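Continuing the series of single-chain predictions for the mutant panel. This is the parent chain; the variants come on the following pages.
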Amino acid sequence: MWAMKPGVEERLNELPGVENQIDQLQRMIPTPYERDDAEMTLQKALAWRSMHSQGRGLFSLLYAHLADIETRTVREGEFVCNTILGFNVGDGHMHDARLVAAVQKRLSLQPGDLVVVWAESQPVHRRTQRYEVIDAALGVVERGTWKVADCVAEQPWLPNGPVPLHVTWTATGYHRRQTLAADPNRCDATAD
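Parent structure:
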C-alpha cells in the first residue's frame, strides 16, 4: 500500500508515461467518472485488500508508522505498480524497494511524503509474513514480521487496533511517527 501526503499522487504524473489512476478514471471515454466516484472506485481495492490477512497487516503498519494517516491518500500498491510500469505483472512482483527508489530518483520527495508498506507472500512452512516499510526518501526503514493467525483473527477494519508487529530491523535514526496501541505488546517498536 502507498500512503502519500497531499499532492504526491498528482506528482506521479511527472513520471515518464504515467498518469495516476484517479486522473485516468476521470477521463475515461465514453463515461468519465466524477472525482468522488473515481475515489470510491479506488477505495474498493483497499477494501478488497483488507478482506485478506495481508491487508490487515499492511494497514497495521500504516497505523503504527503514520500519525497523519487520515490526511493521506492511500492506494493499493499493486495498482500503483501497474500504473507506473504500464503493465500488470500479477501480485506486484516488481513492486518493492527498487521501484520506490526509481520513483524517488525522479521525484525527489521529502522524508515522509511517500511511505510504502510491503509484504512478502506467506511461505507454506512459516506462520509469519515478512514486511518492509519503505520511505521513498530514506529507503527501507523497518523490517519485521506479523503472525498470519493474528491477521486472520482480526476484523478487516481493525477494531482492536493494529495487529502485533515484530520488528527485526530498524534503520539507524529512524523512529516510528506513531504507536497507537496502549498495550506495548500490540505494536512492538523495538528492534531485535
